[in-house]
Amino acid sequence: MPDAGRLLLLDSASLYFRAFFGVPDSVKAPDGTPVNAVRGLLDMIATLVTDRRPTRLVACWDDDWRPAFRVEAIPSYKAHRVATEVPGTTGVEEVPDLLTPQVPVIAAVLAALGIARVGAPGYEADDVIGTLVAREQAAAAPHPVDVVTGDRDLFQLVDDATPVRVLYTVKGIRDLDVVDEARLADRYGVRSGAAYADLATLRGDPSDGLPGVPGIGEKTAAALLARYGSLDGVLAARDSGDAGLTATQRRRLTEAADYLAVAPTVVRVARDAPVGDVADALPRTPADPDALVALAERWGLTSSVTRVVDALAR
Predict the structure, then answer these.
(1) pLDDT in tens, 174-231
(2) 20 to 30 A from 274, CA-CA: which of 30, 126, 148, 240?
(3) Cα separations (Å) of 31 from 40, 101, 106, 119, 154?
(4) Which residues pair with 164 in a beta bridge?
């Protein structure tokens, strides 16, 4: 039986990138266009709906993959992934040539299925997810939320009280790593999503162009947070000359003061992105059956579309 009220949030780009690299590009439409990312994502959705039985589903979208407010705070943010500099913007993301034309097809198929696809101008999908999680947590009777992603940044949303879990795709969509507070404690030595965000700030993340505090790795960051409770507590200890910090740690935290003053703005997902009302009910039947049939035939997606439709109907 579906879990009444359970909300499933998809980090769409994370999933279709995974599909693109996980499904051979020999999977093509009748005209020879690769559709491996489309097919892979649809198969993922069918599996998730079948296995997780949500009653609400949102495909969260990157309306801006590299928001200006993050780049202004830390210019190196995702800078290594810029393919083209465009004046007045933060640049065009480097995306495989064979993936780019598949993204509009994904959007069209989701629309025909009736699956909500939601972005926010000037924000990443992470921020849309954070905002929808915050709304659920603020509800009079919040329902469980599962966030599906291959991005560890979203571990900061984990909260057993709601509960909010991350279904991490590192082992594949059929063997998801279910990340809750116990998993955070076991793997990273922190006991909450908020503490994970502080850990990520201190540690940094080269994949996002975040330098972190030089010399403060993951284990040291976790130990500092265990001692002082939060990043604010660590910085207060630095500034007060607390004896619990070694001279080297205090020096490193002091030298990184400029970074630490702005990094939380970059690392923490927004909880108040401009996301409108979302019709997130899981569709039981396609919103536009004729369009869905036409898309399936044009792009050679019949088997994958059928799997999704069957999963939604159960």
Answers:
(1) 999 999 999 999 999 999 999 999 999 999 999 999 999 999 999 999 999 999 999 9
(2) 148
(3) 18, 14, 17, 31, 38
(4) 145, 159
Dmax (CA) for the chain in angstroms is 70
3-class SS shares of the chain: helix, strand, coil, % to 5: 50, 10, 40
Find the angle CA(207)-CA(212)-CA(215) to the nearest 5 degrees: 120
Is the Cα dihedral 280, 281, 287, 289 positive or negative?
positive
Cis omega (within 30 of 0) for bond into 163: yes
Structure token pair of residue 222: 């976790």
Instruction: Decide if 29 contacts 300 (C-beta within 8 A).
Output: yes
Instruction: State the residue for tokens 């919103």.
Output: 287
pTM: 0.96
Q: Where are the alpha helices (DSSP H) in 94-230?
A: 102-113, 125-138, 181-188, 193-203, 218-228
Instruction: Read off the pLDDT of residues 75-124 as tens digits, 9 standing for 90 and up.
Output: 999 999 998 888 888 888 999 999 999 999 999 999 999 999 999 999 99
Structural contact between residues 293 and 285, judged by C-beta atoms closer than 8 angstroms: no
Phi, psi of 10 (to 5 degrees): -100, 125
Q: Is 148 helix (H, G, I), strand (E, B) or coil?
A: strand
